Amino acid sequence: MLRVQVQPMRAQTDTEPANGDMRFAHFRFDPGQDRLGEGPQCEVYRAVDSRLNRTVALKILRPHVEFDPAAVERFEREARHTSSLAHPNIATVFEYGQERGTSFIAMEFLEGRTLDKIVVDRPLGFAEGVRVGLQVTSALDLVHRHGLIHRDLKPGNVMLLEDGSEKLLDFGICRSKEEQTLTQDGMLVGTVLYMSPEQVQGDELKAASDVFALGAVLYHAITGQLPFPGKSFPEVCMSILACTPRRPSDVRQGFPPLLEEFILKSLSPDPNDRYADAAAAHGALLSVADSIQMETRGLKDASRLRGVILLPPFEIEAGDENAQVFARAIRKDLESELGRSTALVIELLPDEVVSDEQRGAWVLHNTLVLDGARGVVKVQGGRVNGTGEVGVLFQEEFEHQDEDEWGLQAQLVGSLARMVKRRLAEHALSPVHEKPRNPAKARELAQNAHAVLHRGTSRKLMAAVSMFRRAIESDPGCALAHAGLSEALVFKFLYFEGDRTFIEEARESARRALTIDPQCAEAHTSLGFAHHMTGHLEDALREYRLAIQLDNNEFMAHRLLGALLAREGNFKSASPLLRRAIVLQPTHIGSYDHLYCVLRQLDRYEEALEVADQGIAIARDRTQKVPDDQEARTHGAMLLARIGQTKQARLEVQYGLEAAPKDGYTLYHCACVLAILGDPDGALPLLKAARDRGYYLRSELVRNTDLDCLRGLPEFQAVAG
Predict the structure, then answer these.
(1) Which domains are present in the chain?
(2) Angle 646-659/630-642 helices, nearest 10 degrees?
């Protein structure tokens, strides 16, 4: 956060200003260092009132504006109205006057940031947004009780101070019912982005117009998006007059229903359908605040269960071909229910395997019996110990019967969710105490998680996710951990059937990292990765380049940007990026493979062979030291296939499939190796198996030239479809 640091001025014994200081009336300030802001009509400085020896914000009307009677009247009006409103959430005006024909206002000096600056960095949290709204409505209530209308409520006129309080600013166009001379009906005055429809049309305004602006401000501050966007002034005006904003819950997940109802009521096109004034809005917001506090208390109670639950796929003990589909639906619904009603983190595992990196996590092994209208679920629950083994803590069984399949599914999910909450509560009876932050441990965990994540395989992905979450638990302010979790969630999108909820979670984690540290290069890389995987290539390019500008040692940005440019045919630009990626992370073999292909496209065959030989040698060394690094093994196999070492490439495929026979990442990349070797009979079954394991193939099947030898085959079309 940018802070305005107050530098006390030394008292002067004569009438001459100190070094660089100037006098204006009885105020002293340095025009260069003490400038707080400026606009077309005035300038604002931090100054010292030499009479009372206090620091003030000195607002001086520009000389040329003095010739505009309306501007002078607005300036005087701001001083008159603000000085008549004594309220802790309204900035205090100390003095209004003129010096040598120039008008000025001396007002309370505030240290903080206006809401528009904060929203650029991050949207407000729900409770935080309500807290801001309560203070604004408290201030506006006094304004309305004085028979005034603010008429220019916007994020730039709400300042959040360092102590958590806020101040309502700028009463320059504030107007009472008795004042009819400043503007005429039909004249548009104020900031259009937050105006009510009646203000856009130039109609007479009531207190409900300020309520509309409040709703627009809260919508923008909490969702991060404008309720009435537009590329031009007329477009914004038409959007406001249409008055059909997207529901906040469609913009941001988890939006509290009562808060959404408050904002949408405030934004009603008819003033009579809104809260009549700030007092009514304040009362409604108090109810919203109470509901959010109750939810927060509920989360705190549920936080007795804090941690991670791992949900492997259901085993099918009995049932027809529909049983597997039914089991997947139950698992997905259970994830949603537990995520909604508890503070637990639920991770869907691709298989039954867990590791010591997931120590402390709960594991639920479920077995399904589906016999017509009867469903039975057998549950075995435990926790992962330090060696990666699961200690069984409880076993239960549920049976429900319902002719309606959806009804049966809902009953089984409900019983499972209630059992999980009850059982985990029994094993978490001791109160949870806030742990002291451990930034060093968090950073170490995040760095280790990155190393695990880049070994490929869904198993290592889930282990990395758990490690990132443990890093965040050690220090919620670790930007690297939030950024790493974002990257891992994009990989989950790839490994788990292209589920876009993982992309949204990834973006949220990256934004959280940037809120903590706006210079976090890894967060921009992760945002770029999310854009990349969803086809927004221009956005991806921007984020990758920004990451590299912030940190030229950010490996993943070089690697992904090089790969993206290569796919787009820009081989000349891709080459140095991939070389830099190799320097930064020499054990990541995918960079060698991409660079080899780029150099071949540039007709630099000898260099390409050197890169291939180097990558193959490092891959062999890496897999000897870290046998479960499937990224190194499969990309090493690709390089072997590309330079014609068929036998050795097939051996690496065999080793990879023996190590992870059910892993979607391994299956897909081994299929690519066999396709490079011109073996469609070997490649196609692996592609189908990768798809069936949930690996998201759609974009790869379209763009990956390694699969070109398969494209004319009906079996490939079946997989691609």
Answers:
(1) 22-108 (3.30.200.20), 114-300 (1.10.510.10), 306-426 (3.40.50), 438-551 (1.25.40.10)
(2) 160
